[in-house]
Design brief:
2 domains; L-fuculose-1-phosphate Aldolase; alpha+beta; single chain; 9-stranded mixed beta sheet; 11 helices
Length: about 270
């Protein structure tokens, strides 16, 4: 059996969370990532009959029963993942309609998955219902997107259009736009349910005064979604107090739609 530390998905997650920390998106133990795994591929690295312990999830997700996830741990600092992956990451299998998680590897210090695990799993369910290839859910605290929620109207159409106008690539990278939730208590099933509902129509969901959730088919795509939105928010925060002499017009964005073969979210452009 192969060493789990040589599994491409484990190595890529280590690189990704390290990069997220280096970007300043995940201070202290802020942020979390979950990756849905393929059972056949995982069986090359782990004995799937060996369950270390069972962890109560505190929610129900029957659609994910029997699914496997690589996930970051609660209270863990992303800066430490590259040095102690087995302590800071874990691989679990959901059982009993998602109410229990069987730990197959990781969390070697007795820890468990992130407190945002319900929000992640509910978002996985939502994304799978509209795009079966989406296997990643990523949450972090990019400073400029966070700052933008203090000074910008949280209307989703207005928020999205502002981001689209900041960088030419934005409408190409996230033509489905950005959904926004007002401030809610984190780590609860309520915010998980609200996020999942928003995930049905967009791969990016901003939590006002908190951070952002992103979903995608792989770690690169999901990281890139957040990275692009954060770059746009950075530009906005630099110019918001200045008179805008030029902008990317709706006509220009329609040209981008045609040229890159994308379709902007219905009703978001004139």
């Amino acid at each position: 059996m192969k060493d789990i530390m040589t599994a491409p998905v484990v190595m890529e997650l280590i690189r990704t969370v390290t990069n997220m920390y280096d970007h300043g998106w995940d201070e202290r133990n802020g942020g979390n990532v979950s990756v849905m795994l393929d059972e056949a591929e995982l069986a090359e690295y782990l004995d799937l009959t060996r369950v270390q312990r069972t962890i109560l999830t505190g929610f129900s997700a029957p659609e994910l029963d029997g699914r496997y996830f690589l996930v970051t741990g609660t209270g863990k600092y992303f800066k430490n993942v590259q040095y102690e992956p087995c302590r800071n990451l874990g691989i679990v299998r959901l059982r009993d309609g998602g109410t229990n998680a069987e730990l197959l590897w990781g969390f070697s210090d007795g820890g468990k998955f992130t407190s945002e695990f319900p929000a992640h799993m509910m978002s996985h369910v939502a994304r799978l219902s509209v795009e079966p290839q989406n296997r990643i859910v990523m949450h972090c605290h990019p400073a400029n997107l966070l700052a933008m929620t203090y000074v910008h109207d949280l209307d989703e159409v207005k928020f999205t259009r502002t981001l689209w106008q900041m960088c030419t690539e934005c409408i190409v990278v996230f033509p489905d736009g950005v959904n926004v939730l007002p401030w809610m208590l984190c780590g609860t099933n309520e915010i998980g349910e609200a996020t999942a509902k928003k995930m049905e129509t967009a791969r990016l969901v901003v939590w006002a005064q908190h951070g952002i959730y992103g979903a995608g088919k792989d770690l690169d795509e999901t990281f890139g979604l957040i990275e692009t939105a954060e770059k746009a928010a950075e530009i906005y925060m630099k110019i918001a107090h200045l008179p805008r002499v030029n902008t990317i017009t709706d006509e220009a964005m329609h040209q981008l739609e045609v040229h890159f073969g994308v379709k902007a979210r219905e009703g978001y452009l004139e």
